[in-house]
Every structure is written in structure tokens, then in C-alpha cells.
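Ticket opened by: R.M.
Priority: normal
Category: complex prediction / small molecule

The reporter submitted a protein together with flavin mononucleotide and asked that the result be attached to this ticket for the collaborator who will pick it up next week. Submitted input follows.
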Amino acid sequence: MLFTPWSSQAASAVLDATCEKPGPVLISLQALQNEFGYVPKEAVEMVAKACNVSRADVHGVLTFYHDLRTSPPPKNSVRICVAEACQSVGSRKLVEDAEKVFGTQMEESNDDIELKPVYCLGNCALGPSAMVDGELIGRATANDLHHLVKAKS
Amino acid sequence: MSIRIYVPKDAAVRSIGADLVALAIEAESARRGLSIDIVRNGTRGALWLEPMVEVETNEGRVAYGPVTVADVDSLFDSSFHTGGRHKLSLGLTEDIAWLARQDRVTFARVGVIDPLSLADYQEHGGLVGLRRALTLQQEEIVTEVTQSGLRGRGGAGFPAGIKWRTVMATASDQKFICCNADEGDSGTFADRMLMEGDPFTLLEGMTIAGLAVGATEAVVYIRSEYPAAYATVNQAIKLARAFGWLGENVLGSGRAFNIRTRLGGGSYVCGEETAMLESIEGKRGVVRSKPPLPAIFGLFGKPTVINNVLTLATVPAILADGADAYMARGVGRSVGTQVFQLAGNIARGGIVETAFGVTLGELVNDFGAGTLSGLPLRAVQVGGPLGAYLPVSSLNVSMDYESLLAAGGMLGHGGVVVFDESVDMAQQAKFAMEFCAVESCGKCTPCRLGSTRGAETILKIMNGEDVQGNKKLLLDLCEVMTDGSLCAMGGLTPLPVRSAMLHFNEDFDRRARA
Ligand SMILES: Cc1cc2nc3c(=O)[nH]c(=O)nc-3n(C[C@H](O)[C@H](O)[C@H](O)COP(=O)(O)O)c2cc1C
Ligand code: SF4
Ligand code: FES
Ligand code: FES
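Result attached by the on-call engineer:
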């Protein structure tokens, strides 16, 4: 996925479009992450100012939501569903296999790849399910995921 | 005349190759000089037959499935584009027994129409309910919904009409309709399929709710794991606005109604209605204490109707066909239809919409055809991660709110997750606690800390450490969580844990040291 390199100028432009909306903090952080791939710590003060709330408020929101991240994303992200319906068709094994083929552990991340758990992708009759850079994959095997990542990078 | 071919665009079907099938059909028809028109519909919900391709013929729509790219050539060789026989032939779609046995009300149009065609929508009964609502007084709409017996499909099963009445009766300069499309429960996907397959029905239900209670602004809160549903609903809103339905003058009535969408942040607890309101307000998704009820003090402090996607999407049919037609279905106080979702280790998974009162066994064995693995069935979790694990001996339970409660379970959002005999129920119980620890909003100590302690305790049991002592400790902990939690996250996490201990005790004792 392609993101704009972080700059406070570009961030200001993003915030101009969100800070006037009702309840602006979360959508502002989401918009920043959409643009830059993450929300750097230094954005907290900018968001606080733009939305007219305290830095503690912004920090609280930033740390509450699993989606929001404060460090740049890796090139590819693989999210594996670890919820019950996928467990019943082998998601625990899928996680183990994926850790092997990608050579990285769940919830670990390097510049290239990150494996993350997700609790249900709404594809519970075609599990185990996973998402590669936003693309939903049903009846997933570790090899499928690996091929897809290779094709994308 | 060009041939009409349907290839679903639903995210589930795309996840197993629908886009490639559509491309292959397009390429092959071009190669053969045939003029075809591919419609990307929602899914009919028979996920075990997907990707299911349909062709319009004079006799009706003819289905083929599951279709892979490798089948496309031979499908054309068999003249499937004019309804020819092929080894993947399923006959007329409406005669497929699995679908024909259902009673589709909420899902009547899903998979049938082009999701974003307002012409198709109206040809199949769309906007009839809204047009009727526009001729009624607020009081009359609320009464119709109350009399239909429609209850909330998000989990708690609270009567929709009663909630609406409170909002209608609360005076305010501004009121809101909030649609809960957070659908976080494992084993559920009906909200997503409806939003992708028939989004106008949801918008119509929301518009009727707005007319009923006197709200002109609405929000659909959609989880971020559903990017396709989010895009489809946004597109539908745009089209409805251009059509003169949403906006300042709903279908020329002089009444205003606006809908916008909000994307969630990957938090399960934000499906709890007050946490959702906090999230829409841009804050941390921390559960509010009740009272005050959201119906009186809701979004930005204004009276707010909060309903699940399926609740709102059922309203147009009730207004169109009348409360009596809806009420005629179901059992006891569980009237109408429920959109069950068959998931997990099941041979024939997907959407089964049918009147309340079907048994769990009928769903799992008759519709579901048992486990996918072919191994014996061992447990069924009904109602999502906060729902009970039921044993095979419970398969005769009637699937309605009251019977499930009596059987020690709950219906929740209608998810049915099947496990074969390879499941370790102690591990499932441990997961329930871990999930609660990850997703707790943090407000109550029993939920925030008790869940972590619970997972540790189950691990000890699994390791064979003082099994009897730890089992007692776990039950005590469950009691504290049940009694001391503000919302169902902490309050109901003990349900899967206790039911696993009750029905599958052998999995907890297995490793006990002699
Ligand atoms: C932890 C938790 C998660 C919930 N998640 C959802 C959800 O994803 N979707 C939903 O409609 N209701 C969910 N609910 C239920 C809502 O709080 C609320 O009852 C419902 O949205 C009301 O709409 P209804 O009356 O139409 O069901 C959840 C409740 C709890 C306690
Ligand atoms: S029970 Fe858990 S999720 Fe619910 S309010 Fe309390 S801490 Fe939050
Ligand atoms: S449980 Fe994995 S997609 Fe729903
Ligand atoms: S609200 Fe304080 S412990 Fe539950």
C-alpha cells in the first residue's frame, strides 16, 4: 500500500477536512492513518489543537482502538482470524503454519511483513479466513497467503 | 438480446475467487462473440454452493455451482448461457431445496437484485414500505412496528416498537437514528451480507424509523473489518440522495432525512450500544452507565434510536405487508423470522432465514448437513462469543429467544458455530476469557482483570494443577464477573465458560494429576 510520507504540513491539510465534523477525534486519527499509514506521536498535539480537546483525550483514543498504530506499517500486512468459527476449521494450525512460512511470529512486525490476529472477518462459513492488505481470503492456507504476499510485493 | 449472467460480488464469495470467475466468463464470452451482461449481485447465502453463477432464462434463473475458473470453458461448451445442462447444474435457483425451504423476509432481495440498482430495487418491492409510511402519522408507524412484534436482532431482543415509542415521546430539537453495523460476533455475517447485497433496504428502514420518531439525522456505524460493506452503503446513500429519497425532501414529502456512515476502529466492545455512541462521538469506546437510556440521552446527548442492521432492514417489509403478516410467523413471543448464520465446521454453511421455532438440529443437520470434516459433531456455540456451547443432546432446542434462554443459552445475533469432536472445550473456555481480556473497555474490574485471571486459571486446569480447586475458583470468578459487570461483555463471558464446564467436564478433568 502506498502512503504519503509524514509531514506536519500534509497532516494539517488532512485535519482541515475532519476537524469541523461532529465528534472529530477518531475520524481525524483514522484520516491521518489513511494518509500516512500510521499516526506518529507528534500528531497527537496537532489533533488536540485542531479538534479543541486535550492531548490526553487524543492519546486515550489513539491507544484504545486496535486499528490505530503509532509506527509505520510494514510493506504487507496479514491478519488471520482467530475467532471461534475459524478455530473450528483449523485457524490455530493456520497461525502456526503462517508463522513458519513467513518466518515471523504473530503480533510481531518487521519492515516487510506483519502477522496480526483479528477477531472475525464476517466470513465464518468459509474459514479459516485471513486478510492480506485488505483483501479477504477464505479457506486460507499458509501457502495461499504467502503466494499472495509475494505477488503483491 | 444480451444474456444476463449473475456472479456474486459479496466479500465471502470474492474470498473464494468470484472475481476471477467473472473475468473468465467475460473473456470467454468475448472470445466466442457472445454478448453478455454480467450483474454482480449479492449472495443467495448458500455459501457451500458459491461461487454460484446464475443465468437468466425464460423459465427463470438457472444456477451453476460451485464454479471455478477451470469450469468456465466447459460451461460455455454446454451452453450454460442459455441454461444448458452441465455437471455443475443446480436447476432453477428458486427450486434449490436448501433455498426453497427458507422463508425470506429480511433477506428477500439479497442475491436476487443488483445491490446498487434503484430500478431493480423498486421492481422487487423496494420503497413500498417507505411510501406507505409517508402517508401515516408517527404514532401509526410506531404502532405498526410494535404490533408486528419485531425484536432487536443485535442480541438483546428488546421490542423495537417500544424503543421507538420512547424516542418519539421525548421532545428534543434533534434526534438520531443509529444503525449498529459493528457485527463483531464470530459466526455472524448477515449484517454484512445485507449491506453488500441489498443496502437500500437498510436505508429504507432507517428512513422509516426517522419518520416514526421525528429524527432527521442518522448514522450507520460499520466495523472496519467490512471495507466492502462500507463502500457499498456509502454508494447507496449517494444514489438515494441523487434519486431524491435522502436529503431535505424525502420522495417529495417535504420531510428531511440524512444518513452518514462511520467506520469503527477494530474494537469488539464498540458494538455495545453506548460504547458505539461514544465511538461515533470520536471518543474511547467505553460503555456508559444506564440510565439514562440512549432513547432519552443518546448520541451527543440527544434522543436516539439504536437498532441492529437486521432490525432496521426488516421494517420496510413490515410497513409494506402489514404487522399481521410478520406476526403470523414464529413461536410465542419470538415472532417473525430470524436470519440464522450457519458457520464453522459445517458442510453447508450460509444464511438460513426462517421463522423462529426451527430446531437447532434442523439447522445443523438438515440445512447444514453436519460437520465439514465428516467427524462427529461435538459442540455448537449459539449467539456469538458470549453465547453458550451446547452439546449434541441440546439439538432439539427450539431456536427462539425464550427456549434458548431456558436451555441455558442465548440467541444473540443468530450465529450458529459448529465444532467437531476434535475440539478441546477447555481451550475454548480459555479463549472466551482471553477474548474478554483483549476487548474489555476497562471500566469494571471483574471484566478487565477477572478475565485475565480466568484465562490463567483455565491454563492451570489444562496443565493438571489442582484441577478441582481451580475449577471451583473459576466458577467463583464467573459469578463475580456475572454480578459485577456493567455490560454483557464481562457479564456474559461466563456463559461460554460455564456451559463448557457443564456439558464438557471431561475436557477439564482430562489432565488432572492422579
Ligand atoms: C459487548 C457487546 C457487543 C455488542 N455487539 C453488537 C453488534 O456488533 N451489533 C449489534 O447490533 N448489537 C451489538 N450488541 C448489542 C447492542 O448493545 C444493542 O443491544 C443493539 O445494538 C440494539 O439494537 P437492536 O435492539 O436492534 O438489537 C452488543 C452488546 C455487547 C454487550
Ligand atoms: S463489562 Fe467489561 S466491557 Fe462492559 S462496561 Fe464493564 S469493563 Fe466495559
Ligand atoms: S470467525 Fe473467522 S471470519 Fe468469522
Ligand atoms: S463500573 Fe466500576 S467496577 Fe464496574
